[in-house]
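Q: Predict the assembly, please.
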Amino acid sequence: MDSDEDMHDANGSESLEDDFYSEDMGMESDDGDADYDFGNEETDDDAEDINLHRQQNYTILSESDIHQRQEDDISRLSAVLSISRVAACILLRYYKWSVSTVHEEWFANEEHVRQVVGLLENPIDIPNVHELTCGICFETYPRNMISAAACGHPFCGACWRGYIGTSINDGPGCLVLRCPDPSCGAAIGQDMINKLATEEDKEKYARYLLRSYIEDNRKTKWCPAPGCEFAVDFEFGSGSNDVCCKCSYSFCWHCTEETHRPVDCGTVAKWILKNSAESENMNWILANSKPCPKCKRPIEKNQGCMHMTCTPPCKFEFCWLCLGTWSEHGERTGGFYACNRYEVAKQEGLYDESERRREMAKNSLERYTHYYERWATNQSSRQKALADLHSMQTEKLEKLSEKQSQPESQLKFIIEAWSQIVECRRVLKWTYAYGYYLPEHEHAKRQFFEYLQGEAESGLERLHQCAEKELQIYLEADSPMKEFNDFRTKLAGLTSVTRNYFENLVRALETGLKDVDSSNSQAACSQSSSSKSAYGKGSKGGKNKAARSGGPSRNSDDDWSCDRCTFFNPGSASTCQMCEHHQ
Amino acid sequence: MANSNLPRRIIKETQRLLSEPAPGISASPSEDNMRYFNVMILGPTQSPYEGGVFKLELFLPEEYPMAAPKVRFLTKIYHPNIDKLGRICLDILKDKWSPALQIRTVLLSIQALLSAPNPDDPLSDNIAKHWKTNEAEAVETAKEWTRLYASGA
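A: Predicted assembly structure:
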């Protein structure tokens, strides 16, 4: 992606070793340093910025839309080149539905184009005789039972049907069907198909033709969701790669995986490969097993003494520590249950290499497991939230509207909260893939990342808890409760706070955490808690102070942490700048 | 085999193959299965196969002529496009098949393949390599094989 370069430039002194740190979705403006201080007046501008990103740069096409576009292109080309619609369709399909390419080629060398595509300039009529012999079955037929393409090669109806049917059943290659005469090459268009094929084959052909409009075109793709029939027409060169289909599935245009902002496609591909790869099994085997010294099968020692007996047919008996033959063990080597040979050899450094390797593999496996678990948990949590959102929309909202005697239009905040949860779970999930690939030695970035992730995560936990548990009370209530209005304010507040946290997280990761470039921010971040411990419900003040690395001047003792959303406000504000709750 | 409902096309082709055989080619249907043909092709002059008589079998599948006939050399032959099982690498027997082609055209194409081996699209890698690195020697081997296996016994 070309924006990579810009990112590198903008990052100046930062040396970005791995491609994936410089996002290929670089759409941030590089002028101002992104602001992680949620509480100042720039927040509004930022919000606008984000709205700009969300401007759609794609169109979702239904089957009838596709059909319409296809027809329009054909009509237009047929008018411009003064050729039949069938010929226009053949040309467009050959040149991957690119009207401009057809124009270019056609006006450069019409004769050549006609030849390669199989469009005869002067159609040849079937000889004007009473009876004709079919070139396939060799039977003689009256002229009216014989058909031919523009080349005039005569074949009977049954043979045409068979010829076309065979080709259609072989797949989309039927779209480039030529006259059966091997020396000919005249194109067979849809008009011939419709005239000669069976109903079933006509339908199949029409499907292939429709599909080719999407699949051959660089600008269009099918939505990858199972069973979804929409296609997407994507406008290159602007904004995000994220596409949200009408079927509600969101995917990345570039790699067609599920949307993965703020992580880039390369990381996602690596991560998915890693999750499925045998390599993880191998790491486990390496870390937790030793090969039998005789038959070399991996053995996991799950308990007991050092005396190992390999499973049949090998049955080799050996010492787990030194991997030597057990029969050689005894008094001389330190007794049966302690291996002196091992201790001595270890001191001499003989076992170090393989031991270290095993140790490393074990560590790397644990590290991977840490991130994978969290990735997978957020994934399933998102699925659950998606189901909850659905049940909310279909039944619970109505019920709640009854119980609390509120019009459904006043309950939109609940749907908004759940939509936010679903989106946040997705982002959070991918930040764990990001974290896995963030190099260990980039301490400052790591800490800053874990801090942002932790903040976002705890915000999300509060929101999720509120939407799940607290809402339940109002759903089960016998009569309308006056606390419902407070609940509304709280949930709406949490939704907006969490949204802000996540927008900051996404922005920071998409710019490759470029704000971390001084020892000063490292020091500031060092107070922050890691993602693992960030669930903490107390000590909010401390954590929030750490966030304010950008502006030390704002660190006054009057600063306060909002009771409701935990946002850390400057002393000058009397209401929370995040949720407008009073101090 | 239900020879009785043999398509007219196959009957016509068979009749024509018997009444007007192509030069250097003979094809006759088996008595008990009219879809199975015993074929003989004479090695073309000025090819390493000159003087040889090559036996082939040809079978017309149920879908014929919508599907290509199945053809295989029975006589051992040293040729880059024919493997040791006698299978032939020829486009019109695969994706370039057209129902307007016939047994006759297929056999003529095979005959032409003997005149013009194509080591760039090989079926047998070893023979093709031999052909490309030392054509003279490969041609000698082909002649040798023709003498050994195809001398009209």
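The radius of gyration of chain B is 16 Å. The domain at 2-149 of chain B is CATH 3.10.110.10 (Ubiquitin Conjugating Enzyme).
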